Amino acid sequence: MGAHTQGQGPRRANGEREAEILGVLQRADGALTPGEVAERLGGELTYSSVVTILTRMHTKQLLTRTPRGRAYAYTPVTDDPGFAARRMRSVLEERSDRQAVLARFADGLSADDAELLRQLLGPDQ
């Protein structure tokens, strides 16, 4: 079998692959090309699979890219807390009744998280 099985590991959901690649990019000192990402994944994905996932993430505006040689080099647009905040905003924006969603969210917060949110919003809010 040999080389034919490279990159044919267990199938994972696209979101899981994106998170894995995002982690590689966030740990890097700078932008990475698809080949560098594939190498850091230890050959778990084929080069073309990495290109496909990076392109999809760029289309979703999760990554920026700059030309490097014959490829692009990719970097995340934000850090992990920033991505979590973006996901929270997108869920909120999908709902028609923002007040009800925010009220339910606030009701579900622990006392410590509620206090932290109050501090972050500040006295001027």
Would you kindly provide a written description of the structure presented here, covering whatever features stand out?
The protein has 125 residues and is mainly α. It folds into two domains: 2-76, Winged helix-like DNA-binding domain superfamily/Winged helix DNA-binding domain (Arc Repressor Mutant, subunit A, Orthogonal Bundle), CATH 1.10.10.10; 80-121. It is built from six helices and two strands, in the order H-H-H-E-E-H-H-H. The protein has helices at residues 14-27, 34-40, 47-59, 80-94, 98-107, 111-121, and strands at 63-68, 71-76. The protein has a two-stranded antiparallel ribbon. It is elongated and about 50 Å long. Residues 1-8 have low confidence and may be disordered.
Task: Using brief descriptors, characterize the structure shown.
125 residues; mainly alpha; Arc Repressor Mutant, subunit A; 2 domains; two-stranded antiparallel sheet; 56% helix; disordered N terminus; BlaI_family; transcription regulation; DNA binding; Penicillinase repressor
What is the share of helical residues?
Answer: 55-70%
Query: What order do the helices and strands follow?
Result: HHHEEHHH
Strand order of the largest sheet: 1-2
CATH class of the largest domain: Mainly Alpha
Which radius of gyration do the C-alpha atoms yield? 19 Å
* CATH arch. level architecture of the largest domain: Orthogonal Bundle
Main sheet: strands, sense, barrel: 2 strands, antiparallel
The name of the CATH superfamily of the largest domain reads Winged helix-like DNA-binding domain superfamily/Winged helix DNA-binding domain
Number of helices: 6
Anisotropy-based shape: elongated
CATH fold type of the largest domain:
Arc Repressor Mutant, subunit A
The counted number of beta strands is 2
Unreliable parts: 1-8
Q: Which structural class matches the secondary elements?
A: mainly alpha
Protein name: Penicillinase repressor
Keywords: DNA-binding, Transcription, Transcription regulation
Family: Belongs to the BlaI transcriptional regulatory family.
GO molecular function: DNA binding
